[in-house]
Every structure is written in structure tokens, then in C-alpha cells.
Amino acid sequence: MAVKKTTRKASKKKSKTVSAGTKKSWGGRLTSQADAATAKLLASLDVDTLLWRYDIAGSIAHAQMLTEQKILKKSEFHKIKRGLMSVATDIETGKVHLDIALEDIHMVIESALIKKIGTVGGKLHTGRSRNDQVALDLRLWARDAVDLLVADIENLQYAFVSLAAEQGSVVMPAYTHLQRAQPILAGHAMLAYVEMLQRDLERLADARKRINISPLGSAAVAGTSIPLNRQRTAQLLGFDDITRNSIDATSDRDFLTELCFAVSQLGVHLSRWAEDWIIYSSTEFGLIELDDAYCTSSSMMPQKKNPDTLELIRGKSANFIAQLTGMLTLMKSLPMAYGRDMQDDKRFAFEAVETMRDTLGVAAGIVRTVKINAKNIAANIDKGFLDATALAEYLVNKGIPFRTAHGIVGKLVAQADKKGLALSELSLAALQKACKKIEADVSKFLTAKNVVKHYAPDGAGGAKQLKKQLAFWKKKLK
Ligand code: ARG
After folding, report:
1. How many angstroms from the chain centroid is the CA of residue 451?
2. What is the reported pTM?
3. What residue numbers bound the domain in which 57 lies?
């Protein structure tokens, strides 16, 4: 985007008014019109045009309710409804001029309607303000956004579950502090991400309860003397309830902040996964191989296969956090009720949801196409003493207090490490020298492969637990 230079001279000149002649229909009180820069500042059309479908649906429901309340004549309702539907077609086909002098999509639609059907179109805004109108549109949008995000998350969960089912029987290291800790089945590692995603999904579903409440009828701030039936518009638009307080209803944007938080938390989860896989795909780790479609090469180094998509996913969390911070900062200290500051809420929320949807789609592709490097993992699995904890637990089963067992195994690890051996490569005599209770059956408990056979409780990294988890997720995701 080219940035226009504003010279001192240019800014001193009185700038032209925008679309001279399109005096705002709601501007009766005002005697002069905005210049171009002011009109641009006031306008949100570049962002809120996205709301047009919700705005039209809300308007049709409002007009229908006004008709049922005998505030509009049936013939007027039919004209308004047909007019709105025709405006919808015009917007869809790009025939409506998005005149920024009209500020926002609400006024563009109303003015297009009046142009089409005449002054009867001016009856639509009876008992309504843009303040409750925009709150309504945003709630309708956020409800859809949640439903789409939930479907996107389920799609990604499905990819992880399939990966766990198809390639999950490989024994790999689990890490803490990014150091080898204990062996697990790869499927267990993959399903950890599914759990994170499930909380994100549930957070969104919970936010939806607070989103799906109709503010329509709250008007500008205090309600209206027009006898609206708020329950009826709520019902027509699929809301669960109506808001109780018109001041709160027109000034509340918590639902967008909450949505941005749910997206941020999801983004942070994705960044942890991305970081794992960036590390796992390096030569040093060599646990996974990403599909070429999700990698790029270097303009200079011909051998490079870089995990750029994962890096971008890792980086996107910065955007989501910025958008959440934006929402919180926008609303902080804002006096009740509506303030124009709130117009910029959309920039944060829309961007967050759009970017997250794109990110989730790419993430699912990465997961669907990844290869777990079974051979390489197996070749290195008995490095790093992944079976040390299991050996201590073997001693516990022989009646030795865990703290004592921990000390014995620690010494054995130091011995083996010095000789460049694995614990399973120490002789029985050497093991027994460290602890008399060790018997020949110890070999069944050493090596990573054996350790995973003995995991006992639910939620651990072994085969029976993986089977249980897979059954759970397959049923849940169908
Ligand atoms: N476009 C505005 C917004 O998105 C709604 C208009 C409310 N304007 C007003 N002056 N009360 O917040």
C-alpha cells in the first residue's frame, strides 16, 4: 500500500468535503460537513461491510416485529423486506456504492433501501439506534465465528487423532526442559495437542452462551417509547434470551474480548505445538519429517528445507495477543454507554478470527501429511536413560523406598554414562553391586520399549492408555 505524503501546505489547505451532496440523512442537527480526512476517520466501512448479511437479517426481523406490533403496515413490511433483499443482492454483486460519507454499513444499507423504496424505508429505524444495531450485528457475527472456529478446531483434532491412530505406536522420548525424560508412545504425544484444542473448543462454546443474547430494542442507551417485542426479534434471530439492561447492552463488548481471548489462548497452544514440531523436524532431533508442501527453501543454501509454515503459526500468536490487548485497551475506562471508540472493536475481532481460521486450516494440512521418523527414533531411543525412572520404580516394587531407589539409580546412570553405555547394557553383576535386590527380571523393565509396557494409571503414555484415549476421541469426533 502506498503511503500518501501529507505536506504541511496540503494539510493547511481546507480539504474538500467528501461526496458533496450526500448530506447525511441523520445529519439534520449539523450545519457543516466532514472534510475528506474527517470522513475517513469516522468511517468503518472498510471493515464493517463484512457485517452486511447480519445487518439485513436483523433489519428484516426488526421490521417483522414492528409489523406484528402494528407499528408498520403489512404492505410497508413487504416493501421493506423486498427492498432489503434486493439491497442484499446489490451488495453481493458489488452494485452498492460503499460511500464513506455514510460512515458504516448500517447507513449504507438504510440509504440504499430508501433510494429503492422511497420514504417508507425511513420507517425501518423506528425504535432502533445504530448502537443496538451494531451490537446486534456483532453478536450475530460472533456467533457464526464461534461455530466456524469450533468446526475448524474439530478438523485439526481429527487430523491429530488420525495421526495418533496411524503412526502412534512408535516409542519416542517425552521431554521436560527439552531434555529426554521418559519414553511414551508417539500417539500419546499427539493426543496431548488434542486435549489443548478441546479446552479451546469448550472455551469458545462457553463464550457462545454470552454471545447469543439479543441486545436489539435497547436502542441508543435508554430503550424507546415504541412498544417493541424484544423477545420476538430474539426468537426470529435464534437468540437464547434478551439482554436485561439497555445501558449495558449497548456498551458491552465483553463478548468480542472473550472471543479474542479464546483465539489468543488457542494461538498460544498452536505456537507450542509449532515450536515442538520445528524442533522435532530439525536434523538434531529428527523425530518427524514435514511434507514439502509446508516447507520452503533458501534463496542461497540449496540444501535447506525450512519449516516456515510452522514458524508463521508460532508467530501468529503475537497477532492474536495484540488483538486481545487491543480490545481490552479499547474498552478500558470507556464511560458508559456507547462511545465511538468502540467502532474499532471490529478491526481486532475480525482480523483475529480470520487469521485463526486460516491458521487452523494450514495446521490441519501439516498434521495430515507429517511422517513420524520411526526408524530414526528407534535408532536413538536408548540414549538419554529414558528408563531410569522405571528402574527406580522396579526397586520400589522390591520394597525399597523411592528416595533410596532414586539415589541408587542416579549412581548407576553416572556409571553407565561414563562408560558410554545404556542402563540395559550394564551387567547384572554391576547392577547387583549397586543394589542386592536387583534380579534377572530387571531386563524386562529396562529399555524404552519395555518401559512403555508397564505404565499403569489412566492418562499415562503406554499402549492400553493410548487405546482408551483413541476410542474416546474417535467417538467424540465421529
Ligand atoms: N459504526 C458504529 C460502530 O461500529 C456504529 C454507529 C454508532 N454511531 C453513533 N454515532 N452512535 O460502532
Report:
1. 37
2. 0.94
3. 8-24+34-126
